[in-house]
Amino acid sequence: FTEKEAYQQSFNPREYLKEYYSMNDSKDGGNVFLTQNLKLLHKMFSLDGLRGNTLIDVGCGPTIYQLLSACEHFQEIIALDYTDRNRQELEKWLRNEEGAFDWVPVVKYVCELEGDREKWAEKQEKVRKKVKQVLKCDVTKANPTAPVSLPPADCIVSTLCLEGACKDLPTFRSALRNIGTLVKPGGHLVMLTTLGDTYYTFNKQVFSCLHVEKHEVEAAVEAAGFEVKLSEVQPYTVSDDRMDCSGFLGLVARK
Ligand code: SAH
């Protein structure tokens, strides 16, 4: 199991971005992992009721793809992650600093899903304006943002985080209860989880992943006080030696 200290020490945000979030010019950007997840997020954030004032992104890493559909429906976003370097990499992009990761091809792809590829610059600015804070969090803590207490949000989104952060199913279930406290009653949880995966690699390093199945994620979400509204599996059939996942689960639930 990859402890959070290993994330802090050796998770290299630049290498992670390069490995998993680059697009090329071939069909669908040549990155099925990414485009499939963008389509799931687009679908989830198009559901009725997924709107409000505040959104919290739990375990954001150095990425913003998970905010591209979401940013159209919420006014203020707070991004949380455990490692200093991931938060710094994200802040670098938010400040539009030189050398920040180029998300433009990804932003364009999502704009195309939404029906207007030409709106990419506007959407990019929207994300930059709406992310108001980037804070440290630990999903294994009862209050993940301690010592800071955030007012409960209208929605939380968490992509590919808990299965990396939790060593076993009981820890996964308790992490869901912990992050569940960040959302208001009546608010939503939007989750993207790898199914059947035990590891992922980049930069010649291996990170462990908790092997979970759809029914286990749904049960954990319900036990954390949510009602599942949508739960959809996208099989991952690409031969990919960077990970051993069988699919991705997109899940929306209401507290
Ligand atoms: N959400 C991003 C990053 C996923 S990588 C994406 O979709 O690509 C997994 C992330 O979980 C890393 O950013 C890592 O720092 C974070 N993480 C690991 N342990 C954590 C913990 N205990 N609490 C919060 N985040 C944690």
UniProtKB/TrEMBL annotation:
S-adenosyl-L-methionine binds at Y16, Y21, Y65, D81, N86, D138, V139. Keywords: Methyltransferase, S-adenosyl-L-methionine, Transferase. GO terms for cellular component: cytosol. GO terms for biological process: methylation. It comes from the Eukaryota. It holds the Pfam family NNMT_PNMT_TEMT. Coiled coil: none annotated. GO terms for molecular function: N-methyltransferase activity; S-adenosylmethionine-dependent methyltransferase activity. NCBIfam families: GntF_guanitoxin. Belongs to the class I-like SAM-binding methyltransferase superfamily. NNMT/PNMT/TEMT family. This is NNMT methyltransferase.
